[in-house]
Specification:
Radius of gyration of chain B: 34 Å
Strand content of chain A: 5-15%
Helix content of chain B: 40-55%
Number of strands of chain B: 14
Strand content of chain B: 15-25%
Order of helices and strands of chain B: HEEEHHHHHHHHHEHHHHEHHEEEEEEEEE
GO molecular function (chain A): electron transfer activity; heme binding; iron ion binding; oxidoreductase activity
Oligomer: heterodimer
Number of helices of chain B: 16
Distance between the termini of chain B: 88 Å
Helix content of chain A: 40-55%
InterPro entries (chain A): CcoP_N (IPR032858), CcoP_N_sf (IPR038414), Cyt_c-like_dom (IPR009056), Cyt_c-like_dom_sf (IPR036909), Cyt_C_IC (IPR008168), Cyt_c_oxidase_cbb3_su3 (IPR004678), Cytochrome_c_Oxidase_Subunit (IPR050597)
Strand order of the largest sheet of chain A: 1-2-3
Number of helices of chain A: 11
Largest sheet of chain B: 5 strands, antiparallel
Structural class of chain B: alpha+beta
Distance between the termini of chain A: 91 Å
Protein name (chain A): Cbb3-type cytochrome c oxidase subunit
Radius of gyration of chain A: 36 Å
GO cellular component, one term (chain A): plasma membrane
Family (chain A): Belongs to the CcoP / FixP family.
Number of strands of chain A: 5
Order of helices and strands of chain A: EEEHEEHHHHHHHHHH
Largest sheet of chain A: 3 strands, antiparallel
Chain lengths: 291, 488
């Protein structure tokens, strides 16, 4: 650089840029050659990359790249590999009976692990990540089962759901005694208090137990049974225990009797493969509420 | 504006020297003597242990690895002769590191940088590589001459160089090879390596260690100690006025004169220095320093200069140990006409020794009383408690049983805490009520889901401690863990 004639640094033997700050001058030092070469190589590399890999967005899509690489295809390959690795174990799981799975520690561990993952993906939105449920969504950790809590019953519920529209689904619903005009409002209050009394909860002052029993016998025993113990065939809950799906206070019961209830559980057959449904049944059963 | 100046002629030599000095190659001369013998001995011992330890067998019974020292990463086990460590016992390594660090402190307070001079892998391998070089290319003078020679390379010289590098690479390769043998069954892996059946990672590690050994011991040598290693700074700071460091006894050596002149002076009854300026101490130094300039960072205190000087002193008939393991206090005392004193037992060394003994003792004690059966309990958090239809309360726990022994165990689980509680393990039928039994294979863990159910009426409190006991039915060995029982 001879532009800055005379601006020459005696120590380094290089010319300066001519810029000066407080008597300090800037050396006109070129970039190291290796750095410049590396920089040019990155440019060459980038051009190659544009050609080889999918890179440029187009109006409807993008350039595909000459080698046809796609990260989605990679994922598909990885998933296929995973299936292959797990293949034998899942086959064994699919072949074993539900009871045998619970007896075999290795299969039980596999079913619980698999079930837990699938539960998180599919069931947790309603039943909660720990299957503790919520109002209207059963807690799967307790021992109260609307449709039965044996391994087979749980599996059936998962497969076909409840009021799901599937041909084999559980049917049965709580009628809307108020809305449909079957019971008068004061009869509904009496029925609500009768039901509270069944599970040992305190009743309203002046509540007529005999009248309540009569109303219950005429309207409720068909599904809930004479003693109010419920019926898993119809999904009718046990009214004598400590567990209430929608709540046990009087107002909630009046609401339930007036408008009815019909919670829906989707059918999972077809959405999940049979071995997975089996794993899920075992997982749910092992949560502690199984019978 | 400055006047243009020829850059090759700096305006002032003092101001404008280069800030960076290129390395001057060191050509250590061979030497014989006490410290050289110690170094040979320690080198043979260290390399012997490193190269051959993986081949030592240790019978642990059927199915268990029979290698004395094995780091079994896939199965998360560490085997050291009779000791088998599980991942949760890595605190033994913490203890080992503490002992190692304090041992280093102790070495320093007794004899300076003993580690650097005799035991550091960099020293040991560099020494070995120098020995090879010396054997093939000759001693200091010959090597210097050969390196300087501008003659076109003759076949003899080329074959020397090829031979040297081949042997270096062979040693480096074996170093990497021995390394991977610590991570797998040695005879099996050797067979796999030879038949190219070994896992890729083994070849990669052998490659890495071959390259580093070859580069560090063959080329970088003393530069590792001077520029790369933090220990010289730390170790130099750890030494004190009582520590015995390699010292030039300038009180005896100065003023440096020739043998003849010294004799003349002594004949007149005057003081003459013993140092004859023969530079033997410099010639043999593997880091290329002059010990007579006093203690310095580059000095790894290997003691080879002591041997070199002793040989010269013996030849000229003067007392040996002009350079010796000594300290500054004694130089001062000798100048004052007092007898030198050596004090190895002092507060510092006693404290270090006590720490080593204490930590070592604790480790040995815990190792000896180490339980081979263990239990960990984790309370379910979601939900923490469940109300059952009859009103009773149930808590769920994840229980992990660890069987560290070499045999299968039958374990019974009990829980005490809530009154009238029953316990159930998912997938296990209780043999007797409330007492589930589980079989855990040897050297394995078993994770169980355990449910504790207690009647609501006898558990009014929000949280009750619950203790889980696991008992080996056959041997009676037991372990326990505590958690809480919570009400909704």
């Amino acid at each position: 650089m001879t532009d800055h004639h005379g601006d020459f640094d005696s120590v380094s033997g290089r010319s300066t840029t001519g810029h000066e700050w407080d008597g300090i001058k800037e050396l006109n030092t070129p970039l190291p050659r290796w750095w410049v070469i590396t920089f040019y190589l990155t440019i060459v590399w980038a051009i190659g990359y544009w050609v080889v890999y999918p890179a440029w967005p187009l109006i409807s899509g993008h350039t595909r790249g000459v080698i046809g690489y796609s990260s989605r295809a990679d994922v598909a390959v990885e998933l296929a590999n995973l299936e292959k690795i797990r293949g034998d174990k899942m086959v064994a799981l699919g072949a074993a009976s539900l009871a045998d799975i619970e007896k075999d520690p290795a299969l039980l561990a596999l079913a619980r692990a698999k079930g837990k993952t699938v539960f998180g993906d599919n069931c947790a939105p309603c039943h909660g990540s720990g299957a503790a449920g919520a109002k209207g969504f059963p807690n799967l950790n307790d021992d109260d089962w609307l449709w039965g809590g044996t391994l087979d019953q749980i599996m059936q519920t998962i497969q076909f759901g409840a009021r799901s529209g599937h041909a084999k689904t559980h049917e049965g619903q709580m009628l809307a005694f108020g809305k449909d005009g079957v019971l008068k409002p004061d009869e509904i209050v009496t029925a609500a208090n009768y039901v509270r009394a069944l599970s040992g909860l305190p009743t309203r002052k002046g509540y007529d137990a005999a009248k309540g029993e009569k109303i219950f016998a005429e309207n409720c025993v068909a599904c809930h049974g004479e003693a109010g113990k419920g019926n898993p065939e119809l999904g009718a809950p046990n009214l004598t225990d400590k567990i209430w799906l929608y709540g046990s206070d009087e107002a909630t019961l009046i609401e339930t009797i007036s408008n009815g209830r019909a919670g829906v559980m989707p059918a999972w057959e077809g959405r999940l493969d049979p071995a997975t449904i089996k794993a899920m049944a075992v997982y749910v059963h092992s949560l502690g509420g199984g019978k | 504006m400055n006047k243009p100046v020829n850059p090759s002629e700096p305006t002032s030599e003092d101001d404008y020297g280069p800030l960076y000095a290129a390395r001057k190659k060191v050509y250590p001369q061979s030497v014989s003597g006490t410290f050289r013998r110690i170094k040979w001995g320690l080198m043979a011992f260290c390399l012997g242990v490193y190269y051959f330890l993986p081949f030592v067998r240790w019978n642990r019974g059927l199915g268990a690895p029979s290698q004395a020292v094995l780091i079994d990463l896939p199965n998360s086990r560490f085997y050291f002769f009779f000791i088998e460590l599980w991942p949760q016992e890595v605190y033994y390594f913490t203890g080992l590191l503490i002992v190692a660090a304090v041992a280093l402190f102790l070495m320093n307070s007794v004899g300076g940088r003993i580690w650097c001079g005799y035991l550091c892998p960099q020293t040991v391998w560099t020494d070995l590589f120098y020995a090879v070089e010396r054997l093939i290319e000759g001693d200091r003078r010959e090597r210097m001459k050969k390196d300087k020679s501008s003659d076109p390379m003759r076949l003899e010289r080329i074959s020397e160089i090829v031979l040297k590098h081949s042997i270096w690479l062979l040693i480096a390769w074996w170093t990497g090879g021995a390394w991977v043998l610590y991570f797998n069954d040695a005879p099996t892996l050797v067979k796999q390596l030879v038949t190219f059946q070994a896992p890729m990672i083994a070849y990669i590690w052998i490659g890495i260690l071959t390259v580093t050994t070859y580069a560090l011991a063959g080329y970088m040598r003393e530069q590792v100690c001077t520029y790369m290693c933090p220990w010289p700074r730390i170790q130099a700071a750890l030494t004190d006025e009582w520590a015995l460091n390699v010292t030039y006894r300038y009180d005896r050596g100065e003023k440096r004169t020739s043998v003849k002149k010294a004799a003349e002076l002594r004949a007149l009854g005057e003081h003459a220095g013993d140092c004859v300026d023969c530079y033997q101490c410099v010639a043999v130094c593997p880091t290329g320093i002059d010990i007579r300039n006093g203690p310095q960072l580059e000095c790894i205190q290997c003691g080879l200069c002591i041997d070199a000087c002793d040989n010269v002193m013996a030849k000229i008939g003067r007392p040996t140990r002009l350079i010796a393991y000594d300290n500054d206090i004694n130089i001062q005392r000798r100048q004052d006409g007092k007898a030198p004193i050596y004090r190895i037992v002092r507060a510092r060394t006693v404290v270090y020794s006590a720490i080593i003994t204490a930590v070592g003792g604790i480790m040995l004690y815990t190792l000896a009383t180490r339980s081979l059966l263990d239990v960990n309990v984790l309370h379910d958090r979601n939900p923490v408690a469940v109300r059952l239809s009859d009103g009773s309360i149930r808590n769920a726990y994840t229980v992990r049983l660890l069987n560290k022994s070499g045999y299968d165990r039958v374990i019974a689980i009990d829980a005490d805490g809530p009154v009238n509680a029953t316990i159930h393990v998912v997938g296990v039928d209780s043999v007797t009520p409330d007492r589930p039994m589980i079989v855990i294979p040897r050297d394995a863990t078993s994770e169980l889901r355990l449910l504790v159910t207690a009647p609501a009426e006898v558990n009014p409190e929000k949280s009750i401690p619950v203790r889980f006991h696991v008992t080996d039915i056959g041997l009676g060995e037991a372990a326990s863990a505590t958690d809480n029982f919570v009400s909704p």
